[in-house]
Design brief:
- By secondary structure, the chain is α+β, with helices and mostly antiparallel strands.
- 42% of the residues lie in helices and 13% in strands.
- The strands form 6 sheets. It has a 4-stranded antiparallel β-sheet, with no helix packed on it. A 3-stranded antiparallel β-sheet has the order 5-6-7. A two-stranded antiparallel ribbon has the order 1-2.
- The longest helix has 32 residues.
- It is globular, with a radius of gyration of 28 Å.
- The two termini are 35 Å apart.
């Protein structure tokens, strides 16, 4: 790694040469990751699973994650790889699938990638777009795009070329996709954005969208002529938003919208702060300032103030079933998936006992963690363990002995503890795994973790 002091001593030419070397290292690293992902898939072929064990509910099964002609792999393999490379299980699965597809379905592209002539990102784009094609059809696309995949044409033109070759390779599939897309129309709110803003997306056939566009443009022009001096209607975008609202509610400019709009419930969490302006969390939309709540919500909202939920005071229950008050407390304390590098924030996630109930774990705050279903299965049946030194802090250990800390700031890899003396390894070469025990203390600036057998 180049240090800042070294860069400051370089001439312009030397800085450019160093930049070229760094870019080459990134290129080579991406190729190396594809090779590693392929070998990981080879090591986790389907034949390593016990069929009787795999048939049980929730157990690891064999899956074909790549396209036609690609061998099946064990489904938990991607989760373990993702832990070591700092990616979610889904991202690691896609990397493994792309590596398998390049080996088995796109030999010409893979040859150019290994020769340093094609970027891994270009090749992975092709594998992703051809995953539902047959092996022969994928080979047709491989031959049709391999020459242009080296960056000789801009990325947008390369995307168009790949799309055309995919449609040419499988015209029936292209027609099926067009029909599925035609039926998949919707009009819905998207996930919240920053600073109190949100989006509403309409997806329909081109003719319908053109009609909506014309209606919004005409209504926005009426708004411009009727309200030339309105401070919140000075830009075309502002007028188009107001026009869309008027069209959606069937009202005119002179109507008091508060009288005709339906009631909408918004949940805003308030937090005690210091002498700076307090922040609030607008549920489903992220953090906002108190000023935003006052100026945007204040003039048109009725506020119901609810007491703070006492997270620490939730008494445990003597049962495996998790009461609703505990689920609510867990959601308030830990709104995101607690599996390392996971990103899910859906309220429908499963709530898992960190220490299983049938192994002595309590049904109480400090032994719960929300997880998506797949991550829950990996934790239960994939040899991955977790402990909470105190509520909301999760320390994970993967099957290979690597440790990860998950808290409100995200995921961090932890240094492994010194190996404790113990019995000799078994004939398979793997040492017995000691119980996972965790002690944790903290300062205002750091979190320190002790991991011990």
């Amino acid at each position: 790694m180049v240090e800042q002091a070294e860069l400051e001593a370089m001439t312009e030419d030397e800085v450019l040469e160093t930049a070229t070397a760094a870019a080459d290292a990134i290129w080579q690293g991406e190729v190396a990751m594809l090779r590693i992902a392929y070998q990981w898939a080879v090591l986790h072929s389907a034949d390593r699973l016990d069929p009787a064990e795999a048939a049980k509910p929730g157990r690891e099964k064999a899956r074909r994650i790549g396209g036609d002609g690609v061998p099946e792999v064990t489904e938990f393999a991607a989760a373990q790889l993702g832990l070591r490379i700092g990616r979610s299980p889904w991202a690691a699965r896609q990397l493994m699938a792309d590596a398998q597809d390049l080996h088995h379905r796109h030999p010409q592209l893979w040859a150019r990638v290994q020769a340093g002539e094609v970027r891994a990102s270009y090749a992975r784009h092709v594998t992703a777009r051809t995953r539902d094609l047959s092996k022969a059809e994928a080979g047709f696309v491989d031959a049709g795009v391999v020459e242009s995949a080296d960056g000789r044409i801009p990325w947008s033109r390369f995307e168009t070329l790949v799309a055309a070759k995919v449609a040419q390779a499988a015209p029936e599939l292209a027609r099926e996709k067009e029909e599925r897309a035609r039926r998949a129309s919707f009009a819905r709110k998207l996930r919240g954005e920053a600073h109190g803003m949100a989006s509403f997306l309409v997806r329909a056939d081109a003719a319908t969208i053109e009609t909506i566009e014309a209606a919004v443009a005409a209504k926005a022009d009426q708004v411009r002529r009727a309200c030339p001096d309105a401070p919140d209607l000075q830009t075309d975008d502002q007028r188009r938003v107001r026009a869309t609202l008027l069209l959606a509610t069937g009202t005119d400019l002179g109507t008091d919208l508060a009288e005709v709009l339906p009631s909408v419930q918004l949940v805003v969490h308030c937090y005690a702060g210091d002498d700076r302006e307090p922040l609030m969390r607008f549920e489903g939309h992220g953090p906002v300032t108190e000023a935003w709540v006052r100026t945007v919500l204040g003039p048109r909202a009725r506020f119901t103030i609810l007491p703070v939920l006492d997270l620490a005071g939730q008494a445990p229950v003597d049962s495996y079933e998790i009461p609703e008050r505990h689920r609510q407390a867990v959601r308030m304390m830990t709104p995101a998936d607690t599996f390392p590098y996971a990103s899910c924030t859906a309220p429908s996630m499963q709530v898992d006992h960190s220490v299983p109930y049938d192994e002595g774990g309590i049904s109480g705050i400090g032994n719960y963690g929300p997880m998506a279903t797949f991550h829950h299965r990996v934790k239960t049946h994939g040899g991955v363990e977790v402990r909470q030194p105190f509520p909301g802090i999760y320390v994970w250990r993967d099957p290979g002995g690597a440790f990860f800390l998950v808290d409100h700031t995200g995921t961090r890899r932890l240094p492994a503890p010194a190996p404790a003396p113990g019995p000799a390894p078994d004939p398979t070469g793997r040492a017995p795994r000691p119980p996972l025990t965790v002690e944790l203390w903290h300062t205002p600036y750091e979190i320190h973790v002790d991991l011990a057998a």
